[in-house]
Amino acid sequence: MAEKTKRTTPSRYANQRASYDTEVIYKILDEALFCTVSYAEHNQPYSIPQSFIRINDHIYLHGSVGSHFIRTLAEGCPTCISIMLADEIVVAKTAFHHSINYRSVVIFATAELVQNQELKYQAFQQLTEKMVPGSWDYLKPMTQKEMDKTTAVRFSLLEASAKVRQGGPGHEKSEMDLPIWTGLIPIKPVRQAPIPDEHGKQIPLPEHLQI
Fold it and tell me: How many domains does the chain have?
C-alpha cells in the first residue's frame, strides 16, 4: 500500500473514490502515456507534460542533459506529478450534475538522479516499448553516446494515491421524470493506423506497427 498522507487525501469523496492500493495505482500508471510534472522555482510555478514509465515502485522520466527542467528536478526540488485517464463524459439531466468518469494518480516525491547505467538503459527500453510496443529490437540500437546525452530521473511511489470516478450520472428526485436523455459518452483514446513520412513510404510497415 502507498502511504496515506494529508497531501494524498482528497478533499472531496475521499472515502468513496480514493485508493492507496498499489495495484490500483500501478494499473493506471501502466496504461497512461503521459503525466504532468509540477514544481516551483524562485516562487514561480511550472507544470510540464512528460512521457514516463513505471518500473517497480518508481516512475522514470528522461530528458536532455542540457534541459533546465530535468536539471532542476535532479537537484531535488519538491515535485507533484499527476496522471489522468478520462474514460467517459457523464451526461445528466442538468449541467450541474454532468461529470467525468476518470482514473487518476497524484504523486508527491523528490527526484533521484539515475546513475546506474543498466537501470538507465532499462528505463529507456521500457519507455520505448510502452510508447511503441514491439519496437525496441526493430530500431537501431541505442549508443553509449546517446545514453550520455540523456539524463534519467526517478520518483518513488511511496506517497501516492489514486482517485477513480465510475458510474452514471446523479439525479435529484425532482428531475427523474424530465424527458432529458442521460448516459455516458466514451472518450477513450485509440491508436490509429501509422502515417509514414517520405522515408517511411519506401519501407513496408513492420508487423509491430500494424493495427
Answer: 1
